[in-house]
């Protein structure tokens, strides 16, 4: 019997008591990353809603900015955040055979990362060079900064 916190276990498991290769927590973790919220979002003093239902509702209203973690300060590619949210919701599909594989998820996340890198580069290139304090730093695709010799 798997152990886990409510909101992290595969919802299909509750009905079938069967785990599959697509029974993972990725859907909730992705939603937590982009929203900065816990799996249970309070909607009143006595009620809460699961993060996936909350995100699905906001997306159906076309409201991506209200789900993005405010600590990002609006500094993100809207298409990337939207794509991650939709990907996370696809990971919650029932039955599990409709969910993407982990390979599909990795491919999609890499595309989102590319959008974020392009967004960061466009923001970086729009800063006047006199205000640019990162001139000796590069960022690789893993988000790690490194110094390189200027030429």
TrEMBL record:
Listed Basic and acidic residues bias regions: 141-151
Region (Disordered), start-end ranges: 128-151
Record field: compositional bias (Polar residues): 128-138
Membrane-crossing segments per the record: none
PANTHER family, sorted: OS07G0107800 PROTEIN-RELATED, PROTEIN KINASE DOMAIN-CONTAINING PROTEIN
Protein name: Protein kinase domain-containing protein
Organism expressing this protein natively: Eragrostis curvula (weeping love grass)
């Amino acid at each position: 019997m798997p152990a886990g916190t409510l909101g992290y276990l595969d919802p299909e498991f509750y009905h079938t008591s069967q785990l599959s290769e697509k029974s993972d927590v990725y859907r909730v973790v992705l939603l937590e990353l982009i929203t900065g919220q816990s799996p249970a979002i309070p909607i009143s003093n006595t009620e809460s809603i699961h993060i996936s239902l909350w995100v699905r509702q906001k997306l159906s209203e076309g409201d991506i900015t209200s789900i993005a973690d405010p600590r990002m300060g609006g500094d993100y590619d809207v298409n990337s955040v939207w794509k991650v949210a939709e990907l996370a919701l696809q990971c919650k599909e029932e039955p599990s055979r409709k969910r993407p594989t982990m390979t599909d998820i990795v491919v999609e996340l890499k595309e989102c990362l590319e959008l974020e890198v392009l967004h960061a580069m466009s923001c970086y290139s729009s800063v006047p060079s006199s205000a640019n304090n990162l001139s000796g730093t590069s960022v690789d695709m893993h988000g790690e900064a490194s110094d390189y010799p200027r030429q």
